[in-house]
Design goal:
Helices cover 23% and strands 41% of the residues. It has four helices and eight strands.
Length: 149
């Protein structure tokens, strides 16, 4: 993985460990159009792992073209984040292991109505793994110091 901009590899790892905003994932449709979606993620060992339904459009898109771009960034000032590009793979997750981990990360458990519906037995789940080629990190905290209280 090639690192660019203001974050070191350690800072990127720390930022992505702490970030609980979704990853914004961009890919191409089979018709060559751009497609973007937001997914919950976990970042471990230099790769992003996301979960989605096996019948989601993005699964078909990634099977056609595995090239992706991504961004994980704050929604409020001061802005900071990580963006880059890489390759995505899609694998079945019949036990919904990644989904369970993401439910713990984003919802603090599996007791909510949303979690129960996502974990239903008849729902087929996949894991999308994004292996970054290039990663850019940025932090505008100093630059925006006078606009944030």
């Amino acid at each position: 993985m090639k690192i660019r901009d203001s974050f070191s590899r350690a800072e990127i790892d720390d930022y992505l460990d702490e970030a609980t905003v979704p990853i914004r994932l961009a890919c191409h449709t089979p018709a060559g159009r751009l497609w973007m979606l937001s997914l919950w993620f976990q970042y471990r060992d230099g790769v992003f792992r996301c979960a989605t339904g096996a019948d989601a459009d993005v699964v078909r898109y990634l099977e056609h073209d595995s090239s992706v771009a991504f961004e994980v960034s704050t929604n409020d000032p001061p802005y900071a984040g990580v963006r880059g590009s890489g390759t995505a793979t899609v694998d079945p997750d019949p036990e919904k292991a990644v989904l369970r981990e993401l439910l713990e990360r984003y919802l603090d458990g599996t007791d909510s109505r949303l979690a129960r519906s996502l974990l239903e037995k008849d729902r087929n789940e996949v894991t999308i793994t994004v292996d970054p080629d290039v990663v850019y990190g940025w932090d505008f905290s100093e630059r925006m110091a006078d606009v944030v209280e």
